[in-house]
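As the next step, I wrote out a protein sequence along with its fold in token form, included below for the reader:
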Amino acid sequence: VQLVESGGGLVQAGGSLRLSCAASGSTFSIKAMGWYRQAPGKQRELVALITSGGGSTNYADSVKGRFTISRDNAKNMMYLQMNSLKPEDTAVYYCNADLVDGDYYEDCWGQGTQVTVSS
């Protein structure tokens, strides 16, 4: 499976961005998916998770009420709608997928997309 993020960019504080993650390859093996981010000098952190069917989501406390994760399994896409952006949201955002096929498991990552929020 290959994951490709898009939609990052430069935005002013208070603005919005929508990140997309396109999956290709053996997409039948994709189960839970999530968005992570890594700011300069900091560890990668979880932003949001979504279950395979999209029925359950979880968010980091820092983004609750501002970010919304969603997925469209028919299109093999996942999204992160980011509203009321703050300078502290500046980071490289990564798409992640759990791949499960029988006894096989893989933690799959995209290459990341930069989000920069100016004050």
User: Anything to note?
Assistant: The chain has a mean pLDDT of 96. The two ends are 37 Å apart (CA to CA). The first strand starts at residue 2 and ends at 6.
